[in-house]
Amino acid sequence: RKEVEQDPGPFNVPEGATVAFNCTYSNSASQSFFWYRQDCRKEPKLLMSVYSSGNEDGRFTAQLNRASQYISLLIRDSKLSDSATYLCVVKGNKLVFGAGTILRVKS
Amino acid sequence: GAVVSQHPSWVICKSGTSVKIECRSLDFQATTMFWYRQFPKQSLMLMATSNEGSKATYEQGVEKDKFLINHASLTLSTLTVTSAHPEDSSFYICSAGQTGRNGYTFGSGTRLTVV
Asked: Quick one: which of A81, A85, A78, A91 has its CA closest to A25?
């Protein structure tokens, strides 16, 4: 079983749609959780950290459920520029990346 | 914010030659640096963790004699791919972190093509 699992997608959605990504992790001792965004042939860039209390940054909302070892990312009012691969990342003594979920927003 | 500079951004080399990739933290001291490799349509896979002034820790399956890592200062880590072969062609990315930081900053990556 992979340490961090994500639905690979692709998710093809129209502009303005709301889309949700899920992620599960296997190491219960993991300490920190993140969503990164990676554009084609580019390095990953931190989108947001994820907390049990949930956190929101504009159109993006992230949630962590430690009991279920589950992380989510919600994107509201999708823009064309949101098209990218979204990586679920879990940190214990090192960062472990999920394989990523591809999002394609179309006009 | 923290900036990590990685060079070169792309390199093409002949099979059997060695390639050195540099990763520099520009505005902070990076006690730890990580080296990742990403094959097409796959996620980043950690290759090794380097700590300033000590030997790197390699992940299982990564040959330490083939992928030489040097972290001689708090702002510079290098990865040398020795005797490169076509199967080493990949996207190599470094990442740097500081004590107390949760997130890590990534270099812009190096696309290596071995012909």
From this structure: A91
